Amino acid sequence: MSRTAFLTLLLIAIVASTPATALTVNESQKLFAVDGVARDYFGYAVAISGDIAVVGAFADDLDLRDAGAVYVFDRVDGDWVQQATLRPDDPVQDHYFGWSVAVDGETIVVGAPGDRWLSWDTGSAYVFTRSHDLWIQEAKLIAADAQPRAEFGSSVAISGDTVLIGTPLAHVFEPELMTNQGAVYAFSRSAGEWTQQAKLLASDGTRGDEFGTSVAMEGDTAVIGAPLDDAPHASGSAYVFSRSTGVWEQQAKLRATFPVEQDFFGDSVSLSGDTVIVGAPFLHGMKSDTGSAYVFTKSQGVWARKAKLVPSDADLRANFGCSVAISGDTAVIGARFDDNFRYDTGSAYAFTRSSDVWTEQAKLLSSYLPEHSELGQSVALDGDTAVVGAPGLFAGALYSGSAYVYTVGEYRTIVLDVKPGGSQNPINPDSYGVIPVAIMGSQDFDVTSVDRASLRFGPRFAQTAHNLTESFTYDDHLEDLNLDGFTDLMTHYRVREVGITCRDESLTLIAMTVDRQLLVGTDSITTRPCRWFRSPAIWMLNEEPDARSRQDGPVNIDRK
């Protein structure tokens, strides 16, 4: 992969202001299906374990309509390479193979909740293992008491030789009929054979809870979401189960701080050690359906609520918490309907923990996100590597989908001077002109180490005017601008490509050195003149028209 391709770098949250190194999250690669076509929804589900990433495309049509497929990528010398495409031995129409995925080591489990082996949407799950670089189907898992329309395989989790399969629409018949109460099935592997070991139910389950919508597992601990738990209606909950001597028992029930109707707490769950994170994507905050995520930790056998995570730039109906992932002291949370550059482009947020305090570190985006990309529909995290799905993204075809890999690492803060020689740095956002921006050299920083092809500036990550092929360009050059004896790098960017609005009080430049160290610099600006115009409800700034006024074409993935 070229250095330019590597640098679709995105940094929204700056967490240090001194010339040193600090934590950041940057995009390192975009994943897509080599054979992807329209409406595959590649990226609807993602998983990662070490150097293996798994991406589901539940509506892939190669075999039959919406039969589904799963793509396996290996990390080789820092680059992610598609290694295999998985399909079941018995594909059927509307199989939705790849609706959910999980991976641990060299074992992959794939949910197919639309499988009709018994009747409509009975569902199944498939286990694949790798041998000599070839992925082969090891088993097909089904519930011993399978039911029509139970959607077995809606969620999956794996840890070692144990797999959990969520069946959120399963009926429970004892002590009375409870429709759609939901259940989770535990399977274990011995000598390559998989057998059902247990059926997990909520101790206080009732009709319509959809227990098993989400599952997570690590070792002998499992977390199961029931987003429609009725207390009040659809406020949601999550349950913690533990296994001892082969027996699973409910250990705790987790709830939001103040349960509210239609929050869907438990729509997503993740587990790392003694820490659980639970998404509530429809939580009503200052803005409707902004969403949130809750962190719980276990101490002396007791689970307690520790934090509520919300985005710093909460957006109306962003669905923050629709997907969650945690690994150690880092969490990534998806917000699939977040409106950034356009309607429903989506995003994800990275948080880190220090002394039990969680802090937002970065907002994960991409420089190319059309409407309805829904970045953040799925997230996965292992160590310092995150995978974020964007199933609605136009990747060669409508809704073919994509996924992005981000890495957590350190960046170096550099000194930036917008419009060198000035102080207030006035910029007219409506101008067709060019902004001069200088990267200042020092005794500790040599500007000749900057990879000029990697330079990105402003909210829209504009490339330098010098990089564009036109009859007239602006020359980026080296010069000692402030006569301090150190060489500086002068660059130029077109105002209309930078994406400045009247709200902006600073601009950020990101780049890479030739040896791939991330560089970040910020300088203050003033915007003038700024025109204001009246909207029906509030005063708005001279930004792009509200994307909600455009003709919508949302992704329709309802399989019911």
Brief characterization of the structure:
The chain has 560 residues and is mostly beta strands. Helix content is 1%, strand content 45%.
What descriptive keywords fit this protein?
560 residues, mainly beta, Methylamine Dehydrogenase, Chain H, Immunoglobulin-like, 2 domains, four-stranded antiparallel β-sheet, 2 helices, 45% strand, elongated, disordered N terminus
Task: Describe this entry's structure for a reader.
There is one protein chain. By secondary structure, the chain is an all-beta fold. It has two domains: 26-408, Integrin alpha, N-terminal (Methylamine Dehydrogenase, Chain H, 7 Propeller), CATH 2.130.10.130; 414-533, Sandwich (Immunoglobulin-like). Helix content is 1%, strand content 45%. The chain has two helices and 39 strands. Strands 1, 26, 27, 28, 32, 35 and 36 form a seven-stranded mixed beta sheet that branches. Strands 2-3-4-5 form a four-stranded antiparallel beta sheet, with no helix packed on it. A four-stranded antiparallel beta sheet has the order 6-7-8-9, with no helix packed on it. The two termini are 41 Å apart.
The total number of structural domains is: 2
Number of DSSP helical runs: 2
How many DSSP-defined strands?
39
Distance between the termini: 41 Å
Mean pLDDT reading: 85
Which CATH architecture of the largest domain?
A: 7 Propeller
Shape: elongated
- Poorly predicted regions: 1-22, 468-472, 532-560
Strand residue content: over 45%
Sheet/helix structural class: mainly beta
Proportion of helical residues: under 10%
What is the H level of CATH, i.e. the homologous superfamily of the largest domain? Integrin alpha, N-terminal
Largest pleated sheet: 7 strands, mixed
Oligomeric state of shown chains:
single chain
Radius of gyration: 25 Å
The CATH topology name of the largest domain reads: Methylamine Dehydrogenase, Chain H
CATH class descriptor name of the largest domain: Mainly Beta
